[in-house]
Write a structure and sequence with these properties.
CATH topology: Beta-Lactamase
CATH architecture: 2-Layer Sandwich
Number of strands: 5
Order of helices and strands: HHHHHEEHHHEEEH
Strand content: 15-25%
Helix content: 40-55%
CATH superfamily: GAF domain
Shape: globular
């Protein structure tokens, strides 16, 4: 327990130091530092405090899924195919709406059970304002593909995961959803490449 607290403290201190020492130019070139800065300064999150996952109620989730039914229908087959191509039992292919709410997920039952307490399940809210720097939320905030390695996450409890996410656009060019691969694997670049290939 003491070792975990020390690691968490070191993680939080690293984030604080990076944000404080970054110049405006540094932040302009570094998506992670910009995200950490938003988490600290705009959302008033603190990396020392453990994050409690936000899960929306089932009625609200059903409403969101109904509004995004066309996106879910289009993505369902591609998500299953991507999951099979990854051949990584410790991964999940995730679809969120533009608020960062998970509306569909493809994963092994074992991995799904392990990550559900982190909020990585349908109804989990992964916006930056709720979950700090993470693949899905940072992709929405930056409106661009992102890859968030383990220690890049704002909250240390997510540092076991590597997340690669890309925006999904509607015919008018607006972001309609985010497609993400979250995994214990360190093959982040491969996952991001696989996502870009599908889109």
């Amino acid at each position: 327990m003491g070792m975990l607290l020390r690691e968490s403290d070191r993680h939080a201190e690293r984030i604080m130091a990076m944000v404080q020492s970054a110049t405006a130019d540094d932040q302009g070139n570094d998506a992670i530092t910009r995200s950490w800065s938003r988490c600290l300064n705009e959302y008033r999150l603190h990396p020392h405090r453990p994050h409690k996952p936000t899960i929306i109620e089932s009625a609200a989730l059903e409403d969101r899924c109904e509004r995004k039914a066309d996106v879910i229908d289009c993505a369902r087959y591609e998500m299953t195919t991507l999951y099979q191509q990854l051949a990584d039992a410790d991964s999940a292919v995730v679809l969120t709406d533009t608020d960062g709410v998970i509306i569909h997920i493809v994963s092994s039952p074992a991995f799904a059970a392990e990550v559900a307490p982190l909020g990585l399940r349908t109804g989990g809210v992964w916006s930056e304002a709720e979950a700090g720097t993470n693949g899905m939320g940072t992709c929405i905030a930056s409106a661009a593909p992102v890859a968030i390695r383990r220690e890049d996450h704002f909250f240390s409890q997510f540092s076991q995961l590597t997340c690669s996410a890309v925006p999904v656009y509607d015919p008018s060019g607006e972001i309609a959803a985010v497609l993400d691969v979250s995994s214990r694997s360190r093959h982040m670049q491969q996952h991001l490449g696989d996502l870009k290939e599908i889109l």
